[in-house]
Amino acid sequence: MKLFKKVLVANRGEIAVRIIRACRELGIKTVAIYSVIDKDSLHTKLADESVCVGPASSAQSYNNIPSILTSAEITDSEAIHPGYGFLAENPHFAEVCLTSGITFIGPTPDSIRLGGDKAKARQIMKRRGVPIVPGSDGPVISEEIALKTARRIGFPVILKASAGGGGRGMRIAKDEDELNNLFFMAQREALAAFGNGELYTEKYIPEMRHIEVQIIADTKGNIIHLGERDCSIQRRHQKLVEESPSPIATEKFRKKIGEYAVKVARVLKYRNAGTVEFIVSPDGSIYFMEMNTRLQVEHPVTEYVSGVDIVKEQIKVAAGFPLELKQTKIELSGHSIECRINAEDPERFIPSPGRITFLSLPGGPGVRVDTAAYNGCVIPSYYDSLIAKLIVHGRDRNEAIARLRRALDEFIIEGIKTTIPFHKKVINDPDFIKGEYNTGLTERLNGSIEPLS
Ligand code: MV4
């Protein structure tokens, strides 16, 4: 078996840079793709070769399948790494890579499809004995069925889009009247957002924690997990802060949630790096929520506590190598926290693109910054506003928080607004410091109740 000689990185920004770094360490040549306005972006400069795939708009560049496949062919790339977002969870793209003889560094098209069908995934997991939040058995095809389900499980209930994930199009109904009104609204929204109006319902769990487990699976059926991440600090369903371990996790909890995650991956015949998301209720009950079939933004906190380079492992299993890592040999140590730094106004989270006129990154012990930003670079308005991830590690949570506070103070970004001031508020919040937070923290800090969606 041989590793790829050349990989095309079908992404931009910090994750493209992260993937190029992993390839370099593995001795793999890289091809960057870029849109016209990304000619001077860091990923374009760092790769061994680069190909312009289209104009600024993502539809015509980073989501332009024919252009990307042609780029892979003319550069003799053996594999494509999709990163996250863009084409990472597009089963059609994974399929055409396969038929073009190019390895898609990710799961099979079928796994992606199943990961994208939240109602079906829930139904499958229920049958296989993985706990799910009480709710509908598969999709709710009509308002009557939604009402019947809600009467059975009790209000409040939450309506979610089968094709959703990330929370878009979710609606909470506290009684029958609300459910009547919200059903059609949610259906219409889901149809507009995902081209699929299918919904399912769950019992609404107030003050839940969003806890997810990183897994890696090879093509031989070996599956390991690398512990959990707590992602309960979100705003409009965008994660803002992630940490590992979760402040509420005991050894026993980790073993249990880890076993559930591995089981989910086994049931789906999953291969590649992936994440299984769970809802954890205030009483500590664990429920399967959904599976993300991609490398995630927050993977570095797991890398810090596990010492495993997830991107390198992902590339190796995609090339057909068996996992060398064994579950019993995985040792998780210390504590890691990530802050997502977005080019956004820190109060209202409105995008703030433009030129970075001065940039100085934090460093020192236990500090990692994943970014494609450099002094004088321009943050375009066309793409995601994530411009840097600040990740820290400490022997324990207190040391991690102290390092985070120091690193946030060292971080200088001039010319655009960023969410750094928001993060300074989070890490000085008494409940965050105690580890006693849930999905309500952001609303409290920014003084307003966010409408769902
Ligand atoms: C929920 C929930 C309460 N009960 N599911 C799922 C996707 C995520 N982005 C939001 N999700 C939620 N699912 C049940 N059954 C509450 C939320 C939720 C939430 C979750 C994590 C972080 C912030 C949140 C804000 C509002 C709602």
What would the keywords be for this entry?
453 residues, eight-stranded antiparallel sheet, five-stranded parallel sheet, 15 helices, 20 strands, 25% strand, binds ligand MV4
Based on secondary structure, the structural category is: alpha+beta
Number of helices: 15
Shape: globular
Low-confidence stretches: 448-453
Largest sheet: 8 strands, antiparallel
**What would you report as the Rg, rounded to the nearest angstrom?**
21 Å
- Each distinct ligand: ligand MV4
Can you describe this structure?
By secondary structure, the chain is of the alpha+beta class. 34% of the residues lie in helices and 25% in strands. It is built from 15 helices and 20 strands. It has an eight-stranded antiparallel sheet with strand order 13-12-9-10-11-14-19-17. The chain starts with 5 loop residues before the first strand and ends in an 8-residue tail after the last helix. It binds ligand MV4. Ligand MV4 is lined by residues 133, 158, 166-167, 202-205, 208, 210, 232, 234, 237, 279, 439.
Topology:
Elements: E1 6-9, H1 13-26, E2 29-35, H2 42-46, E3 49-54, H3 65-74, E4 79-81, H4 91-99, E5 103-104, H5 109-116, H6 118-127, H7 143-153, E6 157-161, E7 171-173, H8 176-194, E8 199-203, E9 209-217, E10 223-235, E11 238-244, H9 251-267, E12 272-280, E13 286-292, H10 299-306, H11 310-318, E14 335-342, E15 354-355, E16 358-360, E17 367-371, E18 378-379, E19 386-394, H12 397-410, E20 412-414, H13 420-427, H14 430-434, H15 441-445
Parallel strand pairs: 1-2, 1-4, 2-3, 4-5
Antiparallel strand pairs: 6-7, 6-8, 9-10, 9-12, 10-11, 11-14, 12-13, 14-19, 15-18, 16-20, 17-19
Helix pairs in contact: 4-5, 7-8, 12-13
The structure holds ligand MV4.
